[in-house]
TrEMBL record:
It comes from the Eukaryota. PANTHER family: MAGNESIUM-CHELATASE SUBUNIT CHLD, CHLOROPLASTIC. This is Magnesium chelatase.
Length: 127
């Protein structure tokens, strides 16, 4: 494999018209699929020990057994951050309608959660 998924990050920079977008998408195509806990909204790796609080609560309650937890292989995520992104879309927010309907707090993950263990593509940063 040409890309080490444990590299921790790559920054591609350059002047306008230097194929940065093409390079980001090409790197994404080279990345191998990842194994996640089945149904995980946060692309959690069973072997890593980094559990989201919802999965951790199910483990403590005995609803999920770590030895028999189902996993699935999915393509490495590629998430593009739009220019006009709002905080709740980027970070996630409580889904008030579902929370009121079910009586349990329902968190809707944002773009950063979807990009976990994948490619987060940020174009046109204005600092």
């Amino acid at each position: 494999c040409a890309v080490n998924p444990k590299i921790g990050g790559v920054v591609i920079s350059g002047s306008r018209g230097t194929a940065k977008s093409v390079m980001a998408r090409a790197l994404h195509k080279l990345m191998p699929p990842i194994e996640i806990v089945k149904g995980s909204q946060f692309m959690i790796d069973k072997e890593s020990g980094e559990w989201d609080s919802f999965l951790e609560a199910d483990i403590r309650a005995g609803k999920i057994n770590l030895d028999t937890v189902d996993t699935e292989i999915v393509p490495t995520p590629f998430v593009q951050i739009p220019l006009d992104v709002l905080e709740d879309r980027l970070l996630g927010a409580v889904d008030v309608e579902k929370s009121v309907r079910t009586g349990v707090t329902v968190f809707e993950p944002g773009l950063l959660a979807r990009a976990h263990r994948g490619v987060l593509y940020v174009d046109d940063i204005n600092l």
